[in-house]
Amino acid sequence: MPCGAPNLPAQRLILFDGICVLCSRGYRFVTARDPERRYRFVAIQSDEGRALASANNIDPDNPSTFILIGDGRTYTRSDAALRILASLPWWRWVAVLRFIPERWRDAAYDIIARNRYRWFGKRDTCLMPDPSRVTLR
Protein backbone atom coordinates (compact mmCIF):
# COMPACT_ATOMS: atom_id res chain seq x y z
CA MET A 1 0.00 0.00 0.00
CA PRO A 2 1.48 3.41 -0.88
CA CYS A 3 2.72 5.69 1.84
CA GLY A 4 0.04 8.08 2.98
CA ALA A 5 -2.92 5.81 2.35
CA PRO A 6 -5.79 7.49 4.19
CA ASN A 7 -7.71 4.28 4.86
CA LEU A 8 -5.55 3.17 7.79
CA PRO A 9 -7.42 4.36 10.89
CA ALA A 10 -4.67 3.40 13.37
CA GLN A 11 -2.08 5.24 11.29
CA ARG A 12 -1.55 8.95 11.77
CA LEU A 13 0.11 10.57 8.84
CA ILE A 14 1.38 14.13 8.54
CA LEU A 15 1.81 15.58 5.07
CA PHE A 16 4.11 18.61 5.32
CA ASP A 17 5.97 21.11 3.15
CA GLY A 18 9.52 19.72 3.05
CA ILE A 19 11.14 22.96 1.84
CA CYS A 20 9.54 25.20 4.48
CA VAL A 21 11.91 25.80 7.40
CA LEU A 22 9.00 26.22 9.85
CA CYS A 23 7.41 22.98 8.64
CA SER A 24 10.74 21.14 8.87
CA ARG A 25 11.12 22.38 12.44
CA GLY A 26 7.60 21.12 13.11
CA TYR A 27 8.62 17.69 11.80
CA ARG A 28 11.64 17.64 14.13
CA PHE A 29 9.54 18.90 17.05
CA VAL A 30 6.94 16.16 16.67
CA THR A 31 9.42 13.32 16.06
CA ALA A 32 11.40 14.33 19.17
CA ARG A 33 8.22 14.21 21.29
CA ASP A 34 6.54 11.16 19.79
CA PRO A 35 8.20 8.28 21.67
CA GLU A 36 5.47 5.85 20.62
CA ARG A 37 6.12 6.75 16.97
CA ARG A 38 2.41 7.17 16.26
CA TYR A 39 3.05 9.63 13.46
CA ARG A 40 4.40 8.98 10.00
CA PHE A 41 5.52 11.80 7.71
CA VAL A 42 5.42 12.45 3.99
CA ALA A 43 6.86 15.55 2.34
CA ILE A 44 4.45 17.19 -0.09
CA GLN A 45 7.29 17.30 -2.61
CA SER A 46 7.54 13.47 -2.75
CA ASP A 47 5.52 11.46 -5.27
CA GLU A 48 3.23 10.15 -2.52
CA GLY A 49 2.92 13.61 -1.01
CA ARG A 50 1.99 15.25 -4.31
CA ALA A 51 -0.72 12.65 -4.92
CA LEU A 52 -2.09 13.00 -1.41
CA ALA A 53 -2.05 16.80 -1.56
CA SER A 54 -3.87 16.81 -4.90
CA ALA A 55 -6.44 14.35 -3.59
CA ASN A 56 -7.15 16.82 -0.76
CA ASN A 57 -7.40 19.91 -3.00
CA ILE A 58 -4.01 21.30 -1.98
CA ASP A 59 -1.66 22.59 -4.65
CA PRO A 60 1.54 20.57 -4.12
CA ASP A 61 3.58 23.32 -5.80
CA ASN A 62 2.19 26.02 -3.50
CA PRO A 63 0.76 24.36 -0.38
CA SER A 64 -1.30 26.57 1.87
CA THR A 65 -1.58 24.03 4.70
CA PHE A 66 -0.42 20.65 5.87
CA ILE A 67 -2.57 17.59 6.44
CA LEU A 68 -3.09 15.24 9.36
CA ILE A 69 -4.75 11.97 8.47
CA GLY A 70 -5.86 9.94 11.45
CA ASP A 71 -8.79 8.38 13.18
CA GLY A 72 -10.46 7.90 9.80
CA ARG A 73 -10.50 11.66 9.09
CA THR A 74 -8.43 14.33 7.41
CA TYR A 75 -7.58 17.53 9.29
CA THR A 76 -5.96 20.73 8.03
CA ARG A 77 -4.83 24.12 9.27
CA SER A 78 -5.27 24.94 12.97
CA ASP A 79 -7.33 21.83 13.62
CA ALA A 80 -4.47 19.60 12.44
CA ALA A 81 -1.86 21.54 14.41
CA LEU A 82 -3.83 21.46 17.66
CA ARG A 83 -4.67 17.76 17.32
CA ILE A 84 -1.03 16.88 16.82
CA LEU A 85 0.22 19.03 19.70
CA ALA A 86 -2.51 17.83 22.07
CA SER A 87 -1.48 14.23 21.45
CA LEU A 88 2.14 14.78 22.54
CA PRO A 89 3.37 14.37 26.11
CA TRP A 90 3.54 17.70 27.97
CA TRP A 91 1.53 19.40 25.22
CA ARG A 92 -1.93 18.05 26.00
CA TRP A 93 -2.90 21.41 27.50
CA VAL A 94 -3.19 22.95 24.00
CA ALA A 95 -6.44 21.03 23.51
CA VAL A 96 -8.11 23.89 25.40
CA LEU A 97 -7.32 26.16 22.43
CA ARG A 98 -9.85 24.21 20.36
CA PHE A 99 -12.51 26.19 22.21
CA ILE A 100 -11.44 29.26 20.26
CA PRO A 101 -13.71 29.47 17.21
CA GLU A 102 -12.16 27.67 14.25
CA ARG A 103 -12.49 30.65 11.93
CA TRP A 104 -10.35 32.75 14.30
CA ARG A 105 -7.77 29.99 14.71
CA ASP A 106 -7.64 29.45 10.95
CA ALA A 107 -7.31 33.18 10.29
CA ALA A 108 -4.18 33.25 12.47
CA TYR A 109 -2.94 30.03 10.85
CA ASP A 110 -3.43 31.50 7.37
CA ILE A 111 -1.37 34.60 8.23
CA ILE A 112 1.52 32.41 9.34
CA ALA A 113 1.13 30.06 6.35
CA ARG A 114 1.17 32.95 3.85
CA ASN A 115 4.30 34.43 5.38
CA ARG A 116 6.19 31.29 6.44
CA TYR A 117 8.87 31.46 3.74
CA ARG A 118 9.51 35.16 4.37
CA TRP A 119 9.56 34.87 8.16
CA PHE A 120 11.25 31.50 8.63
CA GLY A 121 12.95 30.75 5.32
CA LYS A 122 12.88 28.19 2.59
CA ARG A 123 15.26 25.26 2.18
CA ASP A 124 17.13 24.71 -1.07
CA THR A 125 16.34 21.00 -0.91
CA CYS A 126 13.35 19.12 0.38
CA LEU A 127 13.62 17.57 3.83
CA MET A 128 12.77 13.93 3.36
CA PRO A 129 11.67 12.27 6.59
CA ASP A 130 13.61 9.44 8.17
CA PRO A 131 12.50 6.30 6.26
CA SER A 132 11.47 4.64 9.53
CA ARG A 133 9.01 7.51 10.03
CA VAL A 134 7.49 7.01 6.58
CA THR A 135 7.05 3.26 6.37
CA LEU A 136 3.58 2.08 7.29
CA ARG A 137 3.36 -0.61 9.95
Features:
about 140 residues, alpha+beta, Glutaredoxin, four-stranded mixed beta sheet, about 35% helix, globular
* Broad structural category: alpha+beta
Unreliable parts? 1-9
Query: Tell me, what's the shape?
Result: globular
**Strands ordered across the widest β-sheet:** 2-1-3-4
Q: What Rg do the Cα atoms give?
A: 14 Å
Specify the helix fraction band: 25-40%
CATH topology: Glutaredoxin
- Strand tally is 4
Structure description:
The protein is α+β, with helices and mostly antiparallel strands and 137 residues long. It has a single domain, classed as Glutaredoxin. It has 4 helices and 4 strands. Strands 2-1-3-4 form a 4-stranded mixed sheet, sandwiched between helices. The longest helix has 19 residues, at 102-120. The chain is globular, with a radius of gyration of 14 Å. 29% of the residues are buried.
Protein topology:
Blueprint: E1 12-16, H1 21-32, E2 39-43, H2 47-55, E3 67-70, E4 73-76, H3 77-86, H4 102-120
Parallel strand pairs: 1-2
Antiparallel strand pairs: 1-3, 3-4
Task: Give a quick precis of the structure.
The chain has four helices and four strands; from the N terminus they run βαβαββαα.
